[in-house]
Each structure stands twice: as C-alpha cells, then as structure tokens.
Amino acid sequence: MTSLIQTLSSIRHRPGRTFLTALGTALGIATIVALLAVGAGAQRSAGQFFHLGASDLGLFQKDAADPTTSVLPQSMIKQLRKTPGIQSATGFVLLVSDVPHNPGVVVFGSTPANFEVDRMVFSAGHMFTGTHEAVIGDETAKQLHLRVGDTLHVKGHKLSIVGIYHLGVAFQDTGAFIPLRVAQSIAGRQDEVTTIPIELSVGTRPSTIKQVLAKRYPGISIIADGEESIRLGANGDLVSKAALVIAVLALVIGGIGVMNTELMAVIERRSEFAILSAVGWSARQIAWRVLIEGIVTTFLGAIIGLLLGVIGAHYLVKILGASEFVTPHITPWALGRALLIGVLIGVLGGLYPAWRAAHVSPARVLAQH
Amino acid sequence: MPGARVVVEHVSRRYGKALVLDDVGFVVEPGELVALSGRSGSGKTTLLQLIGSLDKPTGGSIRVDDIQVEQLHNPARYRREVVGFVFQLHHLLPSLSAQQNIELPLVAAGVSRAERTRRSQELLEEVGLGDRPKALPSDLSGGERQRVAIARALAGQPRLILADEPTGSLDSTSARHIWELLGSVQESRGTTVIVASHDPSLAEHSDRALHIADGRMIAPADAGNEPQQLPDVA
Of A30, A131, A195, A269, which is most buried by a Cβ count within 10 Å? Predict the structure, then answer.
C-alpha cells in the first residue's frame, strides 16, 4: 500500500513522462478496442445477413463464402412448405453492389407477400404489386434522399419506389425489396434463389427440422441462430481473425512501446534506484516499484484508450465506408478485455525495465553524481 | 543501540587495471567518530562504499561487529539495519516530502505506517525540522536537505553512520551545524561514525583522523607532507 502511495506520488511529480507513457498505451488500447468493436459489429451484421430477420431457419448452399454466392433451386420452396412442422417458406435473391451511389445497399428479390415482408411497417406508400416497382428501407431513403414516386436504379433497371418501410434489421432497413422475378433476371438466375428463410409451426423445435432437412438436402447449410450464422459466415470469421491478429500485434507493439518508455525512465532515474538500494531496498522491492509504476501508468493509458477506441471505432467504419452495414459492437466484455490487455502490456512492458532498475549499481551511479 | 566495531584488513579494490585501494587496514572502535581525510580521488568514497556493502573489495576483509561484509548474501538488509549513509549531495528523492524521504528505509523494512510516521517525525524534530514534514527537497536549503539526509540515515537505528563529504556542498555555517549534528548523534546514541572529507576542520570535530593517499593508508605524520589539497569536485 505504501509502495503504491509512494509510486503515485512519484508518478504525479513526473506528469510529462507519465502522460507520454500513458499515451503510448492509450493508442495501443484504442486500436484494440476499435478493431474488436468493428470486428464484432461486422460479425453481427454478417449474422443478421445470414439469418435474415424473423426466420426460424435460413437455408443456404453449403460452403458459400457469403450469402450472395449461394444458389438454391426455387422448386425446393414448394417441397419445404409440405414438410410437417414448417409453417411457411419463401425465397430471396440477394443483390449486392448493384445500386449506384451506394454499393452498401442490399437489394432483396422477394414475393410481395410472405412471412418476412409481412412484418414491414410502412411509413409511406405500400408494398409493391407490379414488376417495375420497389420498396426501400427508411435508412436507404435517408441516405439516398429518395421518396415515394422517385426511381430506384438497380443494375440498369429502373424501378418506381412505391413504399418506404422499417423492419428493425440493419441490413434490410439499409436495403430495398424488388419483385423476385426482376431480381432473378438481374442476377441471371431464373428459377433459382439465394436463400430460403423458413418459419416453423408453433411448438416445432428447430433442431428437429434441421435434422430432417440435413438428411433430405445434404448440399445445404441450415442456420438456426445468429451465433451459428457467425460461425458459418466465412467473412465474419475472416474479420474476427483479422481483429485477433491486429489485437495481438497491438499487444506486442504496445508492450514494446511501454517497455521502451519505461526503460528510458529507468535510465533517467538510475540515481533514484541507487539511493533506494543504498538505504536498504532490496532488488525485489525496487523491481516491484517500477512494475507498479508501469501498471498504474498503463492502466491510466488503458482507460484513455477505451474512450478513444469507442470514438475511433465509429470513425473507422466511416473512413472504411462501411457505416451503412457495420455498426461497431461494443460490449462490457470487450472493454474489460481491452483493460486486461492494458494491464498485461503494463506487466510485460515493465518486466525488463524493472529488472534493469533492480540491478543498478549504487556504488557506480552515486559515484558519478 | 551501541555503535559497531569496524575492522578493515588488507582491503584492496581494483577497477580494471586501476588500483583504487591498496592493502588498506584500520580498526574503528564502537562509538568513535573517525575522520577519513585525503585528497579527491584518494579512495575515501570507495572505502566507505566497501564498508557499506555498496561494492565488494577485490581483496581483504571487512568486519562490522560479527558481520563479514564482503561475504554478505543479503546486503540490502545490512544496509537497512546496520549502516546509514549520508552523501555529499544529500541524494533525497525530489518527488517525496522530507518525511517520506526519511521513511524510505522503514518502508523497505516493512515498518507499519503509524510507527513510520512517529519515528520520522521524531527524527525531523531531532534535526531541527519538526515543522516541515511536508516540505519537498526543492523547498529546503542545502543545509536543511543534508539534515533530512542525516535523519534518513538514522531512521533504521543503525550502529554505523558512513558520511561521504557531508559538508562538501555547504556554506561554513551550515557545515558547522552538520558537524554538530553528527557529533550529537555519536554522543547521544553511541553510534559509530566514519566521515570522509577533505575539510581541514574535520579533525576538530572527530575523535581520531585516518589519512589516505593514492589508495593507501598513511601515518598521521606523513599526512602533512601530502601535496597541497585541490578543490574537491566530486
């Protein structure tokens, strides 16, 4: 306790050095927080993409790298509807990067009535009825400044906007729905769909239907919940792995930075450690003092880094142009993990300087002064 | 606590090819205040460092009471419990108050906070700074800093005080106060005090003077034949 009080006193009397050390840690931690938040947000978005809102199960072609590359025969839908335990099934064609000025808009080819689109709440207009009509999400309307009566361009096709909806699912609210046949025509996939969302009958367990479908259709992936969709999403995995790699790099770089700063501080303060040694402090006591200083400083840096990271995550998705479909996902666990990493950096980065401080020769240093 | 008996026998210290101490030997009896005089670079500081276990001799032996200093496995404990150092440049930690500086050896010894506060306040009173426990070294004059340094050296209730040029950077009035303080420590506590200095007035304040030149002890009669003293820069 005393050592801690004296350490805090020592830190307070070197504000410049403390600030620079803390800043080095803060930048490392901010990077980790921002990347983890963006990674988690991307995974979450990928999960929503696969799971498609309100469906109980989502069917995709096996080993599809992302939802848009999945191809399933439309004829499956009829067979599925006849399966006991399945209340309803429908087919979607997903089109990505086909809307000019905003490649983040996902266009869903869909029938005008099914259990998914029936949940739409229209703030203006109504569901499309004709082949040259489209409805757009309220976020899309806001971003592209579109209203009912305007025209939506999808890969050269002109569709009249007849409604603006809200579904509460990020990908769908920043997207648009067009007739299934038009989407199939644009994608060049007649009688094929990208995915088949399924609604189960009340009381039916998803696992039971999964078993039945897996046996009947060996070439498909069946996704029952968001977590599963994240696991199956290759892109989500990539994002997750990239975030992990960068977090480890940040840990190493942050650790080296802290060690370097601490080491310089130790060299500057050799006479202080020599005095402590001369008045009877053991090598271990001196090492502890340096280590505690490192941990306290990096802890302060970590707290600053958390704030910077949370702010930075939002700027990062904006800079990357991904704000339409990725919202940084910041959880208490992610923040706690970053704080732990900060303390870990403090410990690892402080070990060598602590060892150096503990082995300062008092005779040599005091003679030089 | 009675002072320590110091026995130095055939001690030498070599740094590479340079022989800084050569076959040095003397005895200091418990409670003595001994002056170690000599020119700058004569080996006084090195000798004090060897006695204080801040360094190890290349040859010979140093015994403080029953402790064989050069064979110590835990020199930190010896420095904490047996000796107290006073340096020329006080060497107080600038970020700590006078009281916190005095408490440093007690912190290392694991003394409770209440006890540390009591002892450090007593020592501050003893050195005439009882009203300035919170003062930082930068708020104190040179003489006051040195008094705090003496109080710190006394904190662990040592049997031996090793003072290296304690008045070297002080004006004559402050220097006189420091000599008086060291004298009173010796008298009231019975502590053995070895003071290294090139201050000519040192002999007046000490029980006995030892002379060292070019790393060797010399007889008192020869001390006067040494070349004229140069100002100490260390």
Answer: A195
